[in-house]
Write a structure and sequence with these properties.
5 helices, 5 strands
């Protein structure tokens, strides 16, 4: 296992960030988010691999292949959060940290967004902080991996 590596997965339509529903997702592109995430990793000697797909099967493959290769998965499964038992099952088999994130507060949106298929197999959830949700998750994983407890 690579003890200092994180896999960040973004699901369907997140490739459209910056051009899509700015009231929920802001105006930053996913590429910019990935650049910032990798910078956080570099500053902390953590390898971070960022991936995005609109394909459920591709996301499942990445999760299955993460075992023994990553210390944590951070996942924004997009619309698959609410529908994919298969992504849930793949995450359940990953024995390390799983952080579920959402840029918008899914509980203040349409009713169908209130239920997450993957929350029950996640180590933690970060919801509603826009692009900061990604950075908060990365920092939480880095702190967990390094054993740092910096609560002030």
């Amino acid at each position: 296992m690579i003890n200092n590596s994180i896999l960040v997965i973004s699901g369907p339509n997140l490739n459209l960030l910056g051009n899509r529903e700015e009231e929920h997702y802001g105006n930053i592109s996913l590429d910019k988010i990935h650049q910032k995430i990798k910078k956080i990793g570099d500053l902390n000697n953590i390898i971070i691999e960022c991936k995005q797909s609109n394909s459920e099967s591709e996301i499942i493959e990445w999760i299955q292949n993460a075992k023994n290769n990553f210390k944590a998965i951070i996942i924004n499964a997009g619309g698959y959060t609410h529908t994919s038992v298969s992504i849930r099952d793949a995450l359940k088999l990953f024995d390390e940290l799983v952080i579920e994130i959402h840029m918008s507060n899914i509980h203040s949106r349409e009713d169908f967004r209130h239920k997450s298929m993957i929350s029950g197999v996640s180590s933690g959830i970060i919801i509603g902080f826009g692009d900061q949700s990604y950075y908060l998750a990365v920092n939480a994983v880095i702190n967990k991996i390094s054993g740092v407890k910096n609560y002030g």
